[in-house]
Amino acid sequence: MRHRPNMRRAFTMIELLLVVAITSILLAAVAMAFNAQAFNLRQNEQMLKTLNQARQAMLRLTTQLRTADFVDPDTAAGSCRLITADGEDLTYSYNAGDRKLYLTTNDDLSDPDYVLCDNVASATFQKTTFVDGGQTKVKYVRITATVSLGDTQQTVHAAAAIRRNLK
């Protein structure tokens, strides 16, 4: 009588090591893709927050410009001084040093400047003027602000006609 050992077919140690190595490579690739997606999501959320902040600043600025009693035609390109319909003396200004757009209340110098927008790469206030009775007045203001976060930049434009000066 011949006795045959009960042999089952199975994977060899080398085959198992190859499967583990291939699975590890695939999982590493998936993990890298997932990490990149998470990084992009965080960066996009931050850029969206910054861009929304810039849009809100533009809305506030254009609303106050449209109803302003006076807009100073002689302020620098990086700032805009105005007197609101309520009589407040305000200045909107861009500071390149800290990359922020500020609102300053000129009536009350004891209060701190209010930061309207962070991460501003550049901002300009282009004033179009006309002469009325020997006095230079601002007809409308074009505002351009570029916000940047990392290597992503977005430019926001707005314009406001000063209603009291429309003719």
Number of domains: 1
Q: Strand-residue fraction?
A: 35-45%
Count the E strands.
Answer: 8
Arithmetic mean of pLDDT: 89
Helix/strand order: HEEEEEEEE
Largest sheet: 5 strands, antiparallel
Structural class: alpha+beta
Helical residue percent? 25-40%
Globally, the shape reads rod-shaped
Query: What radius of gyration results from the CA coordinates?
Result: 31 Å
Measured between the Cα atoms of the first and last residue, the distance is: 119 Å
The largest sheet has its strands arranged as: 1-2-3-4-5
- The residue ranges in which pLDDT falls below 50 over 5 or more consecutive positions are none
Number of helices: 1
Provide a quick synopsis of the model.
With 167 residues, the protein is α+β, with helices and mostly antiparallel strands. The protein contains one helix and eight strands, in the order H-E-E-E-E-E-E-E-E.
